[in-house]
Amino acid sequence: MDFINKKRMPVELAHHKVEEVTYLVDQLKVRGLMMTPHKEVKRIVIYLRGGKGQVGRVRAGRLLQFADINTLVIGPYYRGNNGSEGKDEFYGNDLHDVTEAIRLLNRSYPNAFIHMVGFSRGGLQGLLTFQDLPITSYIIWGGVSNIHLMYEERVDLRGMLRRMIGHPRKHSERYEKRYAINQISATSPPILIVHGGQDHQVGIHQAYYLANQLEQRGAVFRTYYQMKEGHVPKPFALKHTLHTVFQWMSDVEQGHIKDDYDED
After folding, report:
1. Per-residue pLDDT band at 43 (split at 50, 70, 90)
2. Whole-angstrom Cα distance, residue 34 to residue 123?
3. Distances from the Cα of 263 to the Cαs of 9, 111, 137, 189, in angstroms?
4. CA pair distance 73, 121, nearest whole angstrom
């Protein structure tokens, strides 16, 4: 099965066609934004958005950061968001919206490298899905790695989490299903952890926690910490972050991963 609908968007780019795509997931019509290069697709980047609803929505400018002349970039909206059918379950069946998009693209471009980028809420979205997919690497950027840490840290989001998931004590099994670390092993695809030391939306302790857990499991990973940056790096720092992300993707594709990604 391919995308069931493609709607050309009013964004004019020299090297890419921008479309809103629709595909079936669990009998629901789910949408996403996709940038397809005019030239051969050699790399695919799956951007996993943060937030919920209009907060953190997928935008062309964000996807464009990961695009080059041979890279296709797609950002699923997730069910229940921006015209997609269904209800956002916050790491529930909405995970299928990610996995199905990747399987669709892998069938269309079987020789392309596939990298996932999980930003903020999308961090855990990626950790819960990347294990059994044809993924080259995963980049978690300012991302949630532990739902319990998120509940403790974001007092302002506790009401939303209780509505969508339940209370951590009363509905512990629902939180356990969203505990991604148990799925990660030494054979998992390599992970790049990107985080800002002044991030007040997703504290850097989420990154420290993930790095510690990955080290214990013998997983391949690198870290890139910008200790003076917040949730979204300032323009000059953002340039360095994107350079690091692109270098990481190239290194993984070429079969060698450098050790020089840490920044004080």
Report:
1. very high
2. 20
3. 38, 33, 21, 23
4. 19
Q: Which residues are catalytic?
A: 120, 231
pTM of the full structure: 0.93
> Is the pLDDT score of 262 beyond 50?
no
Spell out the domains of the chain, with CATH numbers in brackets. Answer: 1-110 (3.40.50.1820)
Instruction: Inform me whether the pLDDT recorded for 56 exceeds 70.
Output: no
Please give the pLDDT value at position 53: 58
